[in-house]
Design brief:
Elements (H helix, E strand, L loop, with lengths): L5 H28 L7 H28 L6 H25 L13 H23 L1
Helix pairs in contact: 1-2, 2-3, 3-4
């Protein structure tokens, strides 16, 4: 059995509570798809993508947090392995939502750059974790 450090346990607790925020995003999406919120097709697709990325990446991030405890990584590398995906969940979801904000928007605004930043965090986190697990 993997035993969590205090930092990992607290992080996992905070992340578990963040699911309520993701749930509220789902409530917003329900208003969008039922026509109670007026949005363009572009906005609808970006809002859906933001919500989906949040849910999936938070789940993967919790797995990475726990698996990082099974590595011998230390310092920055351990932090990246355990939290890179969680940061990607925040940054990528924010990128999808913020890039689509604005009445009648038909294409992303400059906040779309957050998608690339989030993708880098995601890749860095999973590669670091994978290497850490392979090294022991």
């Amino acid at each position: 059995m993997i035993e969590l450090t205090e930092a990992a346990r607290v992080t996992a607790g905070i992340v578990a509570l963040s699911v309520v925020a993701i749930e509220s995003g789902g409530a917003f999406l329900l208003r969008v798809v039922t026509g109670k919120e007026e949005v363009t097709e572009f906005q609808k697709s970006f809002f859906r993508a933001g919500h989906a990325h949040a849910g999936v990446l938070v789940t993967l991030g919790l797995v990475c947090l726990v698996l990082g405890e099974a590595t011998t990584l230390t310092g920055f590398w351990r932090w990246l392995a355990q939290t890179g995906v969680l940061l990607a969940a925040i940054v990528m979801s924010a990128g999808f939502f913020l890039a689509a904000v604005g009445r009648g928007r038909q294409q992303p605004n400059r906040a779309v750059i957050l998608l690339g930043v989030g993708a880098v965090l995601l890749a860095a986190g999973v590669v670091t974790l994978g290497v850490g697990l392979l090294l022991g």
